[in-house]
Write a structure and sequence with these properties.
It is a single chain. The protein is an alpha+beta fold and 142 residues long. The chain has a single domain (7-110), classed as HIT-like (HIT family, subunit A). It is built from three helices and five strands, in the order H-E-E-E-H-E-E-H. The chain has helices at 7-12, 57-78, 124-140; strands spanning 20-23, 27-31, 41-45, 82-86, 101-107. The chain has a five-stranded antiparallel β-sheet, with helices on one face. A hairpin with a 3-residue loop joins strand 1 and strand 2 (27-31). It is globular. It starts with 6 loop residues before the first helix and ends with a helix. Bound molecules: guanosine-5'-monophosphate and zinc ion. Guanosine-5'-monophosphate is lined by residues 7, 16, 18, 30-34, 88, 94-97.
Length: 142
Amino acid sequence: MADTDCIFCKIIAGEISSFKLYEDDRTYAMMDINPFNDGHCLVITKAHAVNLLDADGADLAAVLPTAQKIARALQAALEPEGINIIQANGPAAGQTVLHYHSHIFPRRLTDGAMMNWGHAPGDMARIEEVYNKIMAELASAV
Ligand code: 5GP
Ligand code: ZN
């Protein structure tokens, strides 16, 4: 169901234009209009959902094949040295549009994007503590 205040729902409805790359029954892919770099694209669900937490599972399952299709086209067209898929959920994650979307970023070794982090060894006691909290939620999930 579309949200009348949602910019991505308006794009899917054709009320706002986009550089559409691809669409199928459940997904829609387009160029990002504020690109981080050349080739920055978005894959969105056609059904309105705020993010990963409330999206329909079948819609989410359809996102990845679309992302693969777009990523292969990006690879062939732009020959990047890497591709990231980033998906933000909530303000601390940097989500600004409240309609599910995955970013597809072609990457260059020299692009300076701050998405990579080092591999410093973790505190195993803390990891186990957090693990137990998550496992308790998974055990009670239907
Ligand atoms: P977020 O910050 O929520 O992870 O990403 C939202 C993305 O949507 C941003 O990269 C932003 O540039 C993009 N965006 C916002 N409005 C529009 C629009 O009207 N059309 C397109 N194609 N992208 C948009
Ligand atoms: Zn929407």
